[in-house]
Amino acid sequence: MKAPRDVPTPLLESLKSLGLTKYEALVYIGLLRTAGATATEVHEISGVPRASVYPVLDRLVQKELVSVSHTTPKRFAAIPPDQGVENLMRRIESDAQSARTALDALYREKGPESRGDQELIWTIYGEENIKTRLAEMFKSAERSVELLATGDLLQRSVLSLLDPVPGSVPVEIVTDHWTGEQPSRFRLHLLPLAALCETPFLAKKLLPYERSGVFLVDDTRALLWMEGAEGQPSALYSESAGLVLFVRRHITTVMEWAKAAVQ
Amino acid sequence: MKAPRDVPTPLLESLKSLGLTKYEALVYIGLLRTAGATATEVHEISGVPRASVYPVLDRLVQKELVSVSHTTPKRFAAIPPDQGVENLMRRIESDAQSARTALDALYREKGPESRGDQELIWTIYGEENIKTRLAEMFKSAERSVELLATGDLLQRSVLSLLDPVPGSVPVEIVTDHWTGEQPSRFRLHLLPLAALCETPFLAKKLLPYERSGVFLVDDTRALLWMEGAEGQPSALYSESAGLVLFVRRHITTVMEWAKAAVQ
DNA sequence: TAAATGTTGTTGCTAATATAACAACAAGGT
DNA sequence: ACCTTGTTGTTATATTAGCAACAACATTTA
InterPro entries of this UniProt entry (chains A, B) (predicted)? Predict the structure, then answer.
């Protein structure tokens, strides 16, 4: 009989978030290391109290993670991991689906009324969320789209979001680095690299972090994308006149400075 | 201010299985029905105690389900449901991935040694699990594949699994119903419908449930697929000589009976 | 201006629930 | 008689839920 050798905690955490309890995880892991064990053997291998093993095994069978033999005493075997994890995911995915539809019903109920967004500044966490918001902004553009972003951010995350901008709306892009040909769709302003290198201090000021950007749509909606070196990215979004004005000025200033430096 | 109108419990359950606590679910749902609420308003809308609202909102921000405004007092807004659920699923999916690899490492450690399968009869729950096991059986067939199944089960779940059967292995199929042309790949035995209708009692005996089947590979591995009217399907699998013999006889008997009835 | 009021955000404590762990025992097999 | 299996309670322990009290700050009112 094998020792109840200890199990890495991160694995336990992962399994918990898939809906297993600690015991269920321990028993399943234990069973993976054997082939057909009795309840008592499961107890010995997993370190789970013998009396607790029975209900736990019942639940695991219910969750389609183990199969049972028709002998006395009963013997138990684990379903292979990929199959088993998929079984768990299927349940969760179905929950996600029903939650999605139920929540969506509630969400639509309120309609897009009084966008409290008006004078507030929102912080959005997570790249996905930021990109979704940016996409909304771009799609709803009516008069202008201006953006000032590091080449990195621009190419990797933002450029693909620009497709839905209506054809009649001019798009102005200011960046420090551009690979590929000049795009006809956008008006491109390249920050003079030479000047940037001469004054790294200034470069830092204009494009402070590794990946960062400033986005302005219709002179009414602004988004500031900032990404600390380590953590997840976050962004500020606002329709506040004050912040919009500030962004407005910032972009203009940078463009003016770029023109001056080029001369 | 809206009432903390009660929330359907199944929705709460779904959200719990996505890793939210009851309070987190209530607050998120509450936020979906407004646009930018203060902590106190969240408390009123969701029915969650005001003091509890703060830690809960913190966690929701962490989980990328709500965004925060930079005002005093802070205001909170929900990320749209589909986006939010996707954010939750991303975490879970990543947990599933790491669990899969970690478990697989453990699983391989033991190798396919001492197949305890030898003399045991296993019950397998869930259609996916059964199909996986059937696929394994078919793929490893070396001498013969025989199956006796209701037409329904055959066409909907089993037929597609037969592809991996090695070309040199003969496949015998006994069923009550077959649509489409005669397959060249298999040897097909149709149970005489007329006789079946005359003796519904017998029909029930031979193919007891709605969807059921008996599968025999190489005269050494047998699987009995049974499906109660309501619950999830289950199956018996065995390499036990006794059970295999029994299945062997059963299939032969049915085929003999069919021949006799036809005359 | 100063007291009165009200709201926000915190802290700490208690209650309820789900999970974990143990003790005891009946049934059956050796 | 002994040991093992499977079952049933009962007791811890951890997580979550719910409450009360308070300091900080702003707004009103005398």
Answer: TrmB-like, Tscrpt_reg_TrmB_N, WH-like_DNA-bd_sf, WH_DNA-bd_sf
A&B contacts, CB < 8 Å: 202
Write down all domains in chain A, each with its CATH number in brackets: 1-113 (1.10.10.10), 121-262 (3.30.870.10)
Distance CA A224, CA A115 (A): 19
Q: What is the pLDDT of residues B118-128, one digit of tens each?
A: 678 899 999 99
Chain A residues touching B29 at Cβ < 8 A = 103, 106
Q: B124: which strand partners?
A: B235
Cα separation, B202 vs B196, in Å, equals 7
Contact of B98 with chain A, judged by CB distance below 8 Å, is answered with yes
- Across chain A, mean pLDDT equals 87
Q: What angle do CA B16, B22, B23 make, to 5 degrees?
A: 135
* DSSP code for A173: E
Show the 3-state SS of A211-238.
CCEEEEECCCEEEEEECCCCCCCEEEEE
The distance in angstroms from the start CA to the end CA of chain B is 80
In sequence order, what are the residues at sequence separation of 6 or more whose Cβ sits closer than 8 angstroms to the Cβ of residue B33?
A: A106, A107, A109, A110, B2, B45
d(CA A153, CA A203) in angstroms, rounded, equals: 16
How many Å separate Cα B168 from the centre of its chain? 32
What is the rounded distance in angstroms from the CA atom of residue B220 to the CA atom of residue B149? 19
Name chain A contacts of B10, Cβ cutoff 8 Å. 98, 102
Does any CB of chain A come closer than 8 Å to the CB of residue B114?
yes
